[in-house]
Write a structure and sequence with these properties.
- The complex is a heterodimer.
- The longest helix of chain A has 16 residues.
- By secondary structure, chain A is α+β, with helices and mostly antiparallel strands.
- Chain B is of the alpha/beta class.
- Chain B folds into 2 domains: 187 residues, 3-Layer(aba) Sandwich (Peroxisomal Thiolase, Chain A, domain 1); 152 residues, Peroxisomal Thiolase, Chain A, domain 1 (3-Layer(aba) Sandwich), CATH 3.40.47.10.
- Chain B is built from 11 helices and 14 strands.
- In chain B, strands 7-14-13-8-9-11 form a 6-stranded mixed sheet, with helices on both faces.
- In chain B, β13 and β14 form a beta hairpin.
- In chain B, α1 runs parallel beside α5 and α6 crosses α11.
- Chain B is globular and about 60 Å long.
- Classes of the chains: A alpha+beta, B alpha/beta.
- At the A-B interface, α4, α5, α6, β3 and α7 of A face α3, α4, α5, β3 and α6 of B.
- β3 of chain A pairs antiparallel with β3 of chain B.
Chain lengths: 264, 360
Amino acid sequence: MNAVHLESVGVLGPGLPDWETTCRVLDGELLQGPEIRSDPDLPQLPPNERRRVPRLARWALAVAHEALAGSERAAGDIAMVFSSSSGDGEIVHRLCEAVTSPERDVSPTMFHNSVHNAAPGYWSISTGSRQRSVALCGYDASFAVGLLEAVGLVLSEQASVMLVACDLPFPAPLAALRDIEAPFAVALLLSPAPRGRALARWQVSLGAGPASARFPCMLPTALATNPAAQALPLLAASRGSVAQSVSLMYAGDRHMTVETCPCR
Amino acid sequence: MDLDGVTLDTWIGRVDGTEEQPLVPRLAEFDCRNNRLAQIGLQQDGFDAAVAQARAHYGPDRIAVLIGTSTSGMEHCERAYRQRDPRSGALPGWFTERYSMNLFSVADFVQRYLELGGPAAAISTACSSSAKVFASAARMIEAGYADAAVVGGVDSLCLTTLYGFDSLDLLSREPCRPCDAARDGISIGEAAGFALLERPGRAQNGVALVGYGESSDAFHMSSPDPSGDGAYAAMQFALQRAGVTPHEVHYVNMHGTGTPANDRIEDRAIFRLFGDSVPCSSTKGWTGHTLGAAGIVEAIICALCVETGLIPGTLNLDRVDPAFASRVAAAQETRDLRYVLSNSFGFGGSNCSLLVAKLA
């Protein structure tokens, strides 16, 4: 049986301040939650560490902490798969400005924060977890590419895995090249055998041809082009009381099918 | 150093002729230094032909493409920033994010070049990126999502990494000298490396990846943990997975960057696991530190080592750091090699060790 269990979720986006509110929006009980006015401040971290975490990692850590708190597991027992298409555009922009200026004055902190695995790095530093992690990218299909990596880890190593997907809009002038209108981050805690009650059971496969999933109409349309927010059609289907099949965009003009079953 | 407008007092490893070798016309939109380097790599040693054979055998959708890179087409992005419109600040029209700067660009290019359609990802964990691709490929095959995988690592010279490592005071002023008492930093190189991995069973001879181990330091973004616990754990996990004991390992290819901290801490972790009987060396004196490509470059070197029974020496090593406890191979040695281990460590405390063996 090649199924993985969804144990807990963390969400952060416009009108979607947490998983509980997102559930009410997905269930049609609420139009939208409160707007997000600033980057998450990570109360889980000691103040001196909190200041160092760059923006993309901040969003990633906020949702990972929400999913961790909603589970019965410890950070030290969970591997992390981090997926992002945009990376930290603010840092790329500032580095490009710095290296193309006459002074070429690069900030060492900004340089080490520019690595794609900054989020899992800060997660490991702030939780003390020595668990393995990986960071990857699949352009617009980054969410499904990350999900396949996470499912591979669960199935082949019987590991519990925190999948975190996060994409933020680019600053100017990069913004003109990439249509990511609104920020979004999601964390999914996946395991081979659930501890406590699982939210859903998923079976994942790849197929030929493009995806057919529609972006849920009750969600902010600004999120439709955010690669990380492609998790939302899957989460919407996983809320249902019956088994459903969701088709997600995958790399190379293919699609991923997730068969989701409620665990009630 | 010899790179457009760079004034740093350091040495680089640069692949000649990259500028003169355009991409195949059908993939011209992917043009940037990093993808040119990838294409040169794919055309070496009959690699593209070997993949074509595997494609006919397994089908294109059953072969994964997993490519490690730390900066992808960042060099292209820097070029675009030099040509911004002076009034509006806009980037020039020839620049796209998708086909150069985006990390997936290189994996997308490789997948299209080889006409494959299985699982695909760009893996980017700084200097362990193209070691991690082997672990990911093993999992894709084990979980049944692929029967084979093209793994690779591609990183090209750019201002961001040169000036970035300079800002951290990690660049050597001479060709890097791993494990030397007077080592003073890294020499940055560029490289593309690829390997075709297949499900166990079909291959009768050659070299096998028999174990991999991954861990995090949980210490600092750019300084390795002085305890070496993360490095030790990655090596131990690799041995554990293969059921191999430390005394069966005949050679360790170190991450061995040539920075004072990395080599000191790695020496300690190797000594803790292997004592002073297993020879270890760093090949970065020849290649420079090729960052996101270093993992696969050194995995390929390890595969050549078990095939030919060669323990490479450590280039530019005059005097082994007297504080080191493990057995550093200064000069080349030859002997029959059963298992060899390759270490890769990256920023963010991302550690990965690969265990390679000769198929009996």
